[in-house]
Structure formats: C-alpha cells, structure tokens
Amino acid sequence: MALRVAIVDDEPLALGLLRSKLQKTGVVEIVAECKNGREAIDAALTHSPDVMFMDIQMPGIDGLSVVKRLQDDETPLIVFTTAFERYAIDAFDLYAVDYIVKPIDQERIERAISRAVERMSSSETPSNKSGIIGAIGEIRKHNGREDEAPTTIWSNDVNQRKIVIKERDEIVLLDQSDIAWLDAAGDYVCLHANGETYIKRSTLKELLGQLDSNTFKRVHRSTIVNLQYVEKVIPHTKGEFFLILQQDQKIKVSRNYRDTIKTFLDNGGLTAN
Hints:
Elements: E1 3-8, H1 12-25, E2 28-34, H2 37-47, E3 51-55, H3 63-69, E4 77-82, H4 86-94, E5 98-101, H5 106-120, H6 128-142, E6 152-153, E7 162-167, E8 170-175, E9 179-185, E10 188-193, E11 196-201, H7 204-208, E12 216-220, E13 223-226, E14 230-235, E15 241-245, E16 250-253, H8 258-266
Parallel strand pairs: 1-2, 1-3, 3-4, 4-5
Antiparallel strand pairs: 6-7, 7-8, 9-10, 9-13, 10-11, 12-13, 14-15, 15-16
Helix pairs in contact: 2-3, 4-6
C-alpha cells in the first residue's frame, strides 16, 4: 500500500521538486499539494495523509504554526524541509522530529520515507505533535523564553479565572472566554485564542479544572472546544462531525464524542448542515 503524502511549500519550484523526488520513490501517493499553511491545515483534516512534507519558513502561517493549529489526533507524521539554524536542528534531533535540510536530495527523501514507515509501524511512537511542541519549547529555552509563569490567576468565579502564559518576552493573562479551543500534545497544551496559538507546559486535566464545564466540551480524545465559538456543524464520515469555529477554524469531532454535539444541537445551539 502506498504511503499517503501531502506536500507543502509556498514556492512553486520547490513544490514541484519535492513532488518529483517523492514520485521517484515509487512508494507514495501524493494526496494534496499545498502552497500555504491554511491549505496544509485543511489537507490534514480532509485527506488524512500519513505523512506531510512541509517547509517551515512560509509567509503567514508557517510550518510550526500549522502543527500548533492541528489537533493532536489529526496531525500526520511531519517531515520539515528547512534551512533553520543549527540550534533548531539540535532541538528537532532531541525530540525525534524528522527534517530534511535544504537543498533537498533524493537520498534524504528516501531516508525520510523509510523513517516514516518505521515510525508508523511502531505502537510505542509518541505523537508527532508532542515532539514538535517539545522542540519549539527547546528553541524558546535557547532564546531565554522558557515558560515559568504560574498556571492561573485564581478567582472564585470560574468565568473570571485567567490562564497565565509566558509568551515570548511577555506574560499573557488569557481570559477563558477568549479561548476558542485547546488540545493536548504530551506535556503541553495548545490554547487557541484571538487568532493566536499559545503553548503552555501543562496537562489538559490541570486546565480542565479551571474552565467552565458548561461552555468547554471535549470533542476528541485530547481536544476541548468552547461551544460559544461554534458557527457551523458539518456531518462527516462514519458518524464524525466537523465544527467550524470563528475565523474559519475547523475541528474534527470523533464518533466517541458525537453525543456532545447532538446534545448541543438539540438544545438549540445550531442546526447541522
């Protein structure tokens, strides 16, 4: 069976070169070609590729931001194509993140394919997103941006509790009403708010106890959605749903949590398309 692959690069020549070298392996099926980060996110959810070869340095939503915005359970194996600095490559090595240093050659492509097949066949391989988020944390640590902030500023009113995140050189006090969704990736949680993605070293369980349970609902094994941000509910295959949130964010609801959405609709939240 061919390996289902998506390729992502904002430069048409680079995209064509990547396509050509992957096709020469004879073992892949290219299911999507994307020229920016937004297309990459949509391809991951729509086509469910096994592997995504993706340039890191793209305008707008770059390769690292694509991973941060994908649900952990919906993140394919990522192979970054990069010309990053040495310290970033060291961080990728530390967290077992696959990469190809540009300029790309055939041998590196074939090695990446072999490693992807090996990782997919291993039942003990940690989530790819977890490793990438860990690498991002290591890069931040190198830049003196390690998160040492407290978890929350506490209030007796659950709706007024603020999530505290050290982001770059600032400490962000995030109102939970601004959080559209959040998902776990190993020892980290990605909080998506105001069009940005914030990474916090925490468990999902720790943060769940601080969120309003009437508003925040689990829709996937490691994904929580603020129902106030849901604008559309689109039925998908095998009893799954897609939630369309504000700012065109798309979240997949797994079969195991579809009753949550059905209850939401039955209570007058929305009408499914």
